[in-house]
Amino acid sequence: xxxxxxxxxxxxxxxxxxxxxxxxxxxxxxxxxxxxxxxxxxxxxxxxxxxxxxxxxxxxxxxxxxxxxxxxxxxxxxxxxxxxxxxxxxxxxxxxxxxxxxxxxxxxxxxxxxxxxxxxxxxxxxxxxxxxxxxxxxxxxxxxxxxxxxxxxxxxxxxxxxxxxxxxxxxxxxxxxxxxxxxxxxxxxxxxxxxxxxxxxxxxxxxxxxxxxxxxxxxxxxxxxxxxxxxxxxxxxxxxxxxxxxxxxxxxxxxxxxxxxxxxxxxxxxxxxxxxxxxxxxxxxxxxxxxxxxxxxxxxxxxxxxxxxxxxxxxxxxxxxxxxxxxxxxxxxxxxxxxxxxxxxxxxxxxxxxxxxxxxxxxxxxxxxxxxxxxxxxxxxxxxxxxxxxxxxxxxxxxxxxxxxxxxxxxxxxxxxxxxxxxxxxxxxxxxxxxxxxxxxxxxxxxxxxxxxxxxxxxxxxxxxxxxxxxxxxxxxxxxxxxxxxxxxxxxxxxxxxxxxxxxxxxxxxxxxxxxxxxxxxxxxxxxxxxxxxxxxxxxxxxxxxxxxxxxxxxxxxxxxxxxxxxxxxxxxxxxxxxxxxxxxxxxxxxxxxxxxxxxxxxxxxxxxxxxxxxxx
Length: 617
Prior knowledge:
This protein is of the alpha+beta class. 54% of the residues lie in helices and 17% in strands. The protein has helices spanning 2-27, 32-47, 74-83, 96-103, 122-128, 160-222, 227-238, 260-272, 325-365, 372-380, 404-415, 447-460, 480-497, 512-517, 523-543, 547-556, 561-568, 572-586, 593-615; strands at 51-57, 63-70, 86-87, 107-109, 132-140, 143-152, 242-246, 249-253, 284-290, 296-306, 309-317, 389-395, 424-428, 431-437, 468-475, 503-506. The strands form three sheets. The protein has a six-stranded antiparallel sheet with strand order 3-2-1-6-5-4. It has a five-stranded antiparallel sheet with strand order 8-7-11-10-9. Strand 10 and strand 11 form a beta hairpin. The longest helix is centred in the first third of the chain and has 63 residues, at 160-222.
């Protein structure tokens, strides 16, 4: 009796020790699979079973899978888990494990070889070598968590005391599983919270750095920092060379961050203005630079946009993918500050252009001395009207003048030195009029400027031949600007009468007619023209004929009546008749050299007079 009592006490101590080990394992944070293997081993060691396993539902909750085992072969585990899974639903033949899981009570079989519930697992049971088994549910308040399966080689009946002990172990296992899962969930939650906290700290640090970048760049904008200052600040933030291109101005900043060859390629890319697709949503695009040694290097281009218009570009070394979030924010803020700077400059330029146009209009319409207030206003804008100037009159202004002011101003800024006095330009009477300071230089020296302005108008217009720039001067006195404008306008008209266009010319390029345009008193010229051409003009007026037109055509065609008839779309007999009438009215034949010379001179002078009349405001 005492010996039996001692065995019972020893067995109880072993059970308590085993349960304590399971609890300790949970506290140590072992994985669920390790915990289930410990439960299976404990059942076999304490009860003397040959094999044990613990099955739990898979992630879908449709089958039971072995997650912990003791004594079972890998082949048996693979057969149960993969080849013949223990299904919890969707089958008419339910295994002992699925029955125990569904009902929450122990299920045992005496002979696996004859019990029909073993079904498809019979071959695996035979190979594993067990005869009897029992399935104990791992019950918890939330439901059944899994099954503890115990196997014996010999036939065995699991008595009530045995089942009770296994139920205690199963309950402890269920508690341990729940605790382990809770601990795993807690660990996962803590990990996620730590990651979230780390993310928040990184975002806070990024926002702090972004705020510093914003403050630095905004301070530059408020203090009127130009492209150089903004580009230098961005270069220091990125630790990369930066090139900014706006209009004709190109700025290189941070040259210490790249090789000479790379910087040269970056400048060339910016100067050429090669178009590349912009990466959607970022305003950034990767471009490839061709280096002098034949190799290639990556660069990034960012657009600076004002009112959906790209007003400048920024380039830097590298690729978009290399940039950190702070780098991207720095580029974004730099583009915004540049846009504000350029918008401010554009507004100031528009105001200056408008005021310059008003001053120019007053200068070119004043009949008397220029008001002192006007001269003072011009001086405040950097113009000294008392100095010698060349007057450039450019015609062919396009119908669509959008952006024309900016292009004209950019062309002038590109050529003018940062010295006083500054040129004065604006639109007046369908012309672009420019007063260009000469200093000690001749008028001819301004021809490249006049040609540049003509090309600006041409590129914005519909036809290349419609653009024309006329250059005159020097204008040395305050009273000479109106006269110079009249002469230039007359020269423009005369040039168009002669079919001249698509070029830049001095008034003197028109020959004798150009010189006559500059004669102050044209009364004698008018008298000569009237004396020579008056009979024809009076006849045309009274008889509604076109003798002057026919005479011009005959002289252009060397008196060839056939060519003249084709040119005027008239019958050759009509041309011959008009010629005889012209010779009768003039009292001389057109073949007379003296007569021919007088007529040619008179017609040219008449063109000059017409141009003078057109040039007079």
